[in-house]
Amino acid sequence: MRERIAMRPSSIGIAVGERASPSVISWTGRYLRQAIVVDAGAALVAGVLALRSHSHAPGYFLVLTMILPFAWISCVALARGYEARLIGAGADEFRRIINAGIALTAAVAMLSYATTAHVPRGYVLIAMPSVVALDMVARYWLRKRLHRVRAQGGCMRRAVAVGHPKDVEALINELRREPYHGLSVVGVCLAGNGGEPDTNLQGVPVHGGLADVMPAVRQSDADTVAVLACPEMNGVELRKLAWELEKTDTDLCLAPALLDVAGPRTSIRSAAGLPLLYMDHPDLTGARQAVKSLFDRFAAGSALLLLAPIFVTVALAVKLGDRGPVFFRQVRVGRNGRPFHVWKFRTMVTDAEKRLAELQARNECGDGVLFKIKDDPRITRVGSLLRRTSLDELPQLINVLVGQMSLVGPRPALPEEAARYGDYVRRRLAVRPGITGLWQVSGRSDLPWEEAVRLDLRYVENWSFALDLQILWKTWSAVTHGDGAY
Predict the structure, then answer these.
(1) Dist CA 349 CA 403 (whole Å)
(2) Which positions ≥6 away from 120 have C-beta within 8 Å?
């Protein structure tokens, strides 16, 4: 049994209430109606595919096909797949769709047995997996369309942020960086002595202190209040605020003081009438990590075989470019601080390391921990293409195969970088570094150092096999767009 850390929700943060305010009812209702339509369409297509798979299908096959959309919508509803809080979510939405598919398959089997009705196995074996797969694709398309709308400022919840200036500023920056979450801070009420009206924080107007939350909601036309952890907003004050917000149907949420802790790691239990938020320890050892290692090595070995022609082509291009070495080896720091040699296709001139000192003044990483500059003069013409397409990273599959790296993980650090890590940052060395990771799919070299570290720590704290698959899926988009690759 995994250990758990129990903490009071007033210091960690939980969502309060499921009720949508009037300003968001229109677009949430429209989105859920569209979800019902795509669910029904996916079920109808799956039924037609199962119908067409039988050249001499009896007449009741057509009846089953016509019933399937209604049965599927009912199962999705029972699996709570139409809850407004799932709008824009990823893994939770897919999990509900899979649960609905399992439930419908089980229901068909039990109904067939109980009524002695003959439901052909061939029809079920084609229709059920097809409806789940098609609906997941349809829901993904619907969610991505919503994300594009939110990137332009539409379909957003307007929030008033309450807390200390530093925490509120971090929340504003995070929500601006990832608008697909659907929450936009339009007003601020600051705890302590920072709540001076007629000022702004990160371009957001400050309406005053903790006593000015309700006027701020009215003035900014907000439908949500996000309270960050602060001792001034204790249980009594928070309860009073919830009562006031209830009168205007304004949602209340408590933002977590423990940053980047995923929902699956938390659960709420009641003790002595108090809701306590329990936090599981991350899975850094054990059977799940063993499965991850086996998957990494199998995938790396398979990729090395399949990509052998590309390896040969790239190697020839690098060699013919300037007659220098094909590969570049460099010491990096792996899991628990163990050094190893990382392999890459060479993208720079052969004396790149010697020329590093003369370019230090152009370093675009202000803290000096990393060295990054755009249009680095040491990069060769072939190397520029390899970096834009990330083909220079392919030899790292060798590191994965021998167990030094993982397909997904934190960015492999240089020894001089790791030597400057504080205790907080060293947490990223608790797992194997990866060829790709959250940093890769969130901006790559365009990310500031602090943001890259935050993403690495988020991965370490919330690792799961499903998260790895999600990052691998998103890596393809990041590579094809070439954002932040230099």
Answers:
(1) 29
(2) 54, 61
